[in-house]
Amino acid sequence: MAIFTLSIKSLRNRKFTVALTIASIALSVMLLLGVERIRSEAQNSFTNTISGTDLIVGARTSPVQLLLASVFGLGNVSNTIDWESYEAIADHPGIAWTIPISLGDSHAGFRVMGTTGAFLDHFQYGRKQGLSMHKGPWSNAENEAVLGAAVAEKLDYRVGSGIVVAHGAGEVSFIEHDAHPFHVAGILARTGTPVDRTVFVSLEGIDAIHAGMDPAHDHGHDPLSVHTTTDPHHAGEGHGAGHHGVINEDHIGHEATAITAFYVGLKSRSAALSVQRMVNEYTGEPLTAILPAVALQELWTIVGVIEKTLLAVSGFVVLVGLSGMLVAIMTGLNERRREMAILRSVGARPLHVLSLIVGEAGLVTLMGIVTGIGLLFGLLVLGQPLIASRFGLLIGITGFSVHEMLLMGIVCVSGVLIGVIPGVRIYRHSLADGLTVRV
Amino acid sequence: MVAFLVPHTQPTANMGLRYNSASSAISLSEVRFAWRPESAPVLDISRLEIESGQHIFVAGPSGSGKSSLLGLLAGVSVPQAGQIRLLGQRLEKMGGSERDRFRADHMGVIFQMFNLIPYLTVVENVTLPCRFSRRRYEQAHSNGGLTVEAVRLLSRLGISDPLLNRPVTELSVGQQQRVAAARALIGSPEIVIADEPTSALDADHRHDFLQLLFEECRNAQSTLVFVSHDTSLSHLFDQTVALSKINRAGSAISMDARRDS
User: Which of B17, B33, B199, B203 has the fewest CB atoms inside 10 Å of its own CB, making it the most exposed?
Assistant: First the structure.
């Protein structure tokens, strides 16, 4: 205890260097905890993107690709499912509900999803939370659209705004389906998932967009296409990995003929594997059924490498911060040999001298951690809305997770251990110097 | 050569063969010390006896083994051979932390200069030994409390109010030495060791400082061991020991003068 108060007073005596050291540790701790928090929130929001859906069925492709396309709106699925196949599978007695979705168009960089009212009724995310309308109703009308929260906010759309859907998923599109504008019927409440960045229209609406397209028009927006002419069916395939695809020109009744994928909810989760097998062995066309939870996990192991790298890098930054402290203590050490001799003369043991230095290192580290936490929370308070709106990532200003506390513990212990280096040095000095320091 | 110090006031009956009498504060016998076990000894003292309550001047020019002797007396070093008896206890038989505790409890030390911890106040510097010794803490406490005792000692040594709250680095050397003396004396340790505490002072201050030191040592009934190469002060002390005469290793091993300057 005597030594501890000495440590504090000694540190207070060197305010400036100590403050600098604390600041460097604080910044590195802030970075470490910030990265950890973003990482865990990213993983959270990632695995919470979809829940309650037992299976996702699409044309035969890799599970990760199907997941990316159908849930995250990333990449494309090259083939579609015939409406007949969809109906045949949806009739399976074990299936409680299905949500057909049709992808491939975009609006101002946001993806457009053709679906039905089942999406509002059955889609769940996070801990089985359903969707709810923020403004206006859900609409299945052919010329009406429902917007995700981020779409409405970013593009400043209100109920009643008119929007035009572009073909293809890119932000810049060469063709816009001007012929078939939509009106915003409703806006969904925020979910923190890709749903926020999606424009929902009815399946009929999707078909209606493409119904007016003639082959020449079709080629116009795809200069790379090698197809020269005639077959509109092939034209569909030509331009589009991922386009919901084949538009049947005969079918002018605005009824969906093909969809990209559909979500499946089962009456009993235990039937998941048998239904999955049934879909995979479906004879009408080659299909893939994935278990979203499993595919999400699989995908995260790929993405996880990046987050681990990030964490490792911020770990090294902490090490640099602690090395700064080591340098600061080491450079002051020789001047303090006299101080140690005085302490020895009044009865301090070499171990006291050691613990004085180690205690200082521990205190500095601790103050660095506390300051770092303060900085992090300050930054979160300021940055939270920005991160939420830009990346759809809601970083909670909450208490610390076990993992975060473990990280802080590791930093603290490292700080103390690093303090042992100068501590042992001064310990040796104080043994050799005794009471007579020749300075 | 045997350096056998018995104060002139002491009856001759006490000059027996054994030196563990209660009145002996410090007693060395056949002590040999080298900084490293394999090197030649820098200190070889057949006998040294210091009476309790005496003020002893140890005259030690460079190379006489002064630092070695101080290290041994303070229990920072241990001899390779011989006995060191302080207050009747065998110092060389104690473990390291035992010696540290012994020093904390029974010894006050004043250095040549730079005696004070820069980040502590004057009073904190004075009460520092009480942080490490329960005995001295209680001793000072029974005298009216740590701060009261520190302020009392300081005022007797001529350090009073405006100086108490000033950073120790702003004190003059003479003032610093007096603060150091107060620290050595707080909690009334039996032995005060002073390593040339006056060498940084001019002649007038030197004399004043010594008078104050003597007075306070007498008050606390402390034995004062004052080591200096400046023999002009020796007449103020009860006894003088010439280290170069009692140290059989001193003159022979001139090489070690460098190590032990």
Answer: B17
Q: How many CB atoms lie within 10 A of CB A254?
A: 14
Q: How many domains would you assign to chain A?
A: 2
Enclosing domain of residue A183: 55-290
The three-class DSSP label of residue A284 is: coil
What is the C-alpha separation between A380 and A357, in angstroms, rounded?
34
Q: Has residue B17 been placed in a domain? A: no
* A86-92 long-range Cβ contacts below 8 angstroms, 24+ apart: A86/A259, A86/A262, A88/A282, A88/A284, A89/A57, A89/A264, A89/A278, A89/A279, A89/A282, A89/A287, A90/A262, A90/A264, A92/A275, A92/A278
Distance from the Cα of A367 to chain B's closest Cα (Å) equals: 20
- pLDDT tens column, B45-75: 888 888 888 898 988 777 677 878 888 888 8
A287-337: per-residue pLDDT in tens? 999 998 888 888 888 877 888 888 888 888 888 888 888 888 888 887 788
Measured between alpha carbons, how far is A411 from A368 in angstroms, rounded to an integer?
A: 10
Let me know if residue A427 belongs to a domain. yes
CA of B75: which chain A residue's CA is closest? A434
Q: Of all helices (H) and strands (E), which one includes residue A246?
A: none
Residue A287 to residues A102, A257, B26, Cα–Cα distance (Å): 15, 16, 99
Length of chain B: 261
Give the CATH number of the domain where residue B30 resides. 3.40.50.300
Inside any domain, residue A295: no
Residues making up chain A, counted from first to last: 439
Residue A387 lies in a domain: yes
**Environment class of B162 (CB within 10 Å of its CB; exposed 0-12, middle 13-18, buried 19+):** exposed
Residue B183 in contact with partner chain A when CB distance is under 8 A: yes
How far is the C-alpha of B249 from the C-alpha of B256, rounded, in Å? 10
| Interchain CB contact of B90 with A (< 8 Å) | no
